[in-house]
Amino acid sequence: MRTQELAESIRVEARKVLVGQEEPLTLLLVALLAGGHVLLEGVPGTAKTLMAKTLAMLLRAEYKRIQFTPDLMPSDVVGTQIFEPATGQFRLRRGPVFTQVLLGDEINRAPAKTQSAMLEAMEERQVTIEGERLPLPNPFFVIATQNPVEYEGTYPLPEAQLDRFLFKLLIDYLPGEVELEVLRRYHRGFDARRLDLANLRPIMAPEDLAACREEIGAVTVEDGVIRYIGAITQESRRSPDLILGGSTRASVALLLTSKAYAAAQGRGYVTPDDVKALVRPVYRHRVILRPEAEIEGLTPDTALGRILGRVEVPR
Question: How many angstroms separate the CA atoms of 304 and 253, rounded?
Answer without folding.
Answer: 16
